[in-house]
Amino acid sequence: MIITSFQTSESDKIFSQSSTITKNKKYYRVFQAISVISIILVFIYLINTQNPIQNDTILKEIEQSEKNNGHNDILTEQDMDQLGLEFLDKNETQQAIRIYDYLHQKYPDNLKYLNSLAYAYFVSGDNKNAFLNFQKSLQLDQDNEFALFYTGLYYIQQQDNQNAKIFFQKVLTLNSKHEGALLNLGNLIYAEKEEKYEEKSAFYYMKCIESNQKNKECLYKMGILYFNRDSSYQAIKFFKLILDVDPQNALANCALGDAYYKLKQNNEALIYYKNCVDLLKQDQQQKELIYYYKKILQIDQKIYPEIINILADLYYSQQQYDDALLFYKQVIRMNPKDEKALLAIIEIYDKQNNIKEQIFWLKNLVELKNLNNDNYILKLADINYKIKNCSEAIYWYKQLFNKQNQNYNLALQIAQCYVDIEDDHAAELWYQKVLIIDQQNQISLEKLSELYYNERKKQQAAKYSQLCLNNYIQSLICNKITGFLYYDDGHYQEASQNLLMALKQDPYDPQALFTIAQTYEALKDYKKASFFYKKCITVNPIASIYKNLAECLLQIDDIEEAIKMLQKSIELDPSYQDSYLLLAKIYENQNEEQSSIEIYEKYYQIDPYDASVVIKLAKYFQKENNIEKSMNYYKFLIEIRESYEPAYQAISSLYLQQNKLDQAIFYFHQLISNNQFNEFAVAQYKYLIALKK
User: Where, by residue number, does the polypeptide cross the bilayer (predicted)?
Assistant: First the structure.
């Protein structure tokens, strides 16, 4: 893998960085030598003096020197330079920058301090300031090899390869054996893929090797070039030269494995591949490990089980879960009792939220352990409960409860499963089992009181609520249930006390809010009732609650607000009839007949069979002399209430207004047919018959 991806491999980055900093830089070799000597001198100095110069002390002295216009009677220039080198050696770049910035300010023409400052910036990642200071250095000495080289590196970081090459060429004009410049020029040319790029890059790599036959980076690059040109034997020579220098070099071992594999010399390839993975494991290079373990697997099938396990774990560590699953399942096919692989498969399916597969593999694991691992059984039960497969969950919880029959949490969970599938009787039995184990178990007492209340078994509900409140006086559920029971029995004052206690625990419990509002309404305390209905609306804004609030507001003469609440109720639920009737009635009482009729007409669209509303509409339009509308309502009224005599009389009168005698006679006749003792109808009928003759 590393060989076939030469241009983008991590080795390129590692080798180029190490070479740029440590190899064949004339100035920097001197720099390193000074650093080593300085550290030794400082070490000796610290041992042989009673008051050694400490880092923080020196930094304070620098600050004091700055305040004294640079005058310093304690620290020497050499002391500060030594300290700066120590900071660089420890990669404490910000401290080094402070030292060399001070020295540069004091000795602006000193090339060494300026280079050190620029280098400190470069190592810290502050490329902009590094570049600016290297430029200053080149202004002092345009043949400054160190500054030229690092300026080239700066341009590589800026992806300006052309300028980078220019500066590396300048370095080579000063020092034709500069390994860093040779290596980077080779890399840049290879990356550009221009004509004859392989020959050109090889030229620089070979120059680098001539300069230093132990340069691992250049040896590796040459090996790669030969490998890619199918000259594996030549490649092997270069890779082996690396091992002569560094036998533990992972890249060289991997590359040799690839080269021998390409030559079909599998035994040799296997030796180097095994060396390769051993070294890669030390560096925790997981992706490369996967690749080379697969290569080993292609060569040596004898170690198949071991490699499959390793590959599965590697894929898992890389979060490549689909690949990990494939290999773990191969492990299971080879050894169905491999608990580690089963657990890994379950964890992967958990991460993928694949519940169905989780359950399947958990069952395998539970069967493998012959029900002897309670944690696996519990997990299997919990997963089934999570997906609302309550019957299966109950089965596994019971398996566990049979082994742990004093575990009331399991009994609670089984009871909850029965509640979820609406098997209240079974739920009650299991909550009772909990109380056998723990007589004061709050959850069971609350759940039993709730179950019995919902079943309208008030006596049992009251019993368990009271038992609960004896021990848990602030129980939300039991205070609610007790309040509901008092309300149902008409004990409103007692109900309010328990419901207020419940609301202390949860001020926005919708059931408690609604019931206490009803309670205060029953107590005719309409202000408190209004307060709780309003609070209830914030939690559960439904039409009926707005209507109830409006009724209470009317009782305290807040008519305007009541109208708003009814309008909001109708807006929320245009089919809620009670709000229409109450709103229309308010308008009637306010003598706003037109508004009242508009509401009744809307109501009629919802429920046309409410005779009382039809009568109102018919009478209104009769009074308004809207004969057509009035007559339509009266005729519809006869359809829904055939015996309603005023409707017949009204229709007859309306026809008489229109001089339609025949129609008027017909409806009087109908009226007499329904009630022959209606003297007015009989008289009118006879009169109209006579009039017609």
Answer: 27-47
CA–CA dist 380, 346 (Å, integer)? 11
Residues 6+ apart with CB under 8 A from 86: 38, 39, 42, 55
Give the residue among 144, 148, 151 at the shortest CA–CA distance from 121.
Answer: 151
pLDDT of residue 370: 82
pLDDT reading at 51 higher than 50: no
Quick one: which of 6, 14, 15, 21 has its CA closest to 153? Answer: 21
Assess contact for 295 and 268: CB atoms under 8 A.
no
DSSP state letter for 107:
S
Give the tokens for residue 614: 């039809």
In this structure, what token pair is assigned to residue 481?
Answer: 């249930």
Q: Could you tell me the CA-to-CA distances from 575 to 212, 484, 571 in Å, in that order?
A: 93, 29, 9
Measuring CA to CA, which residue among 316, 319, 271 is closest to residue 295?
A: 271
Residue 681 contacts residue 674 (beta carbons within 8 Å): no
Closest CA to 99 of 657, 86, 198, 90: 86
What is the signed CA dihedral for 9, 10, 13, 15, rounded to 10 degrees? Answer: -100
- Amino acid, res. 498: N
Task: Name residues whose C-beta falls within 8 Å of residue 335's C-beta, 6 or more positions apart in sequence.
Answer: 305, 341
Rounded percentage of the chain residues whose pLDDT exceeds 90: 73
Q: Which architecture characterizes domain 611-693 according to CATH?
A: Alpha Horseshoe (1.25)
Residue pLDDT, tens place only, 606-616: 999 998 999 99
Residue 471 CB neighbour total at 10 angstroms: 13
Per the CB < 8 A criterion, the answer to whether 55 and 90 are in contact is: no
One fold for 25-176 and 611-693: yes
Write the CATH number of the domain with boundaries 25-176.
1.25.40.10
445 half-sphere exposure, CB direction, 13 A CA radius: 24
Domain spans in the chain, listed from the N-terminal domain onward: 25-176, 611-693
CA dist list (Å): 418 to 355, 396, 431, 447: 21, 14, 10, 12
Q: CB within 8 A of 436, min separation 6: which ones?
A: none
- Each residue's pLDDT tens digit, 158-201: 999 999 999 999 999 999 999 999 999 999 999 988 888 889 99
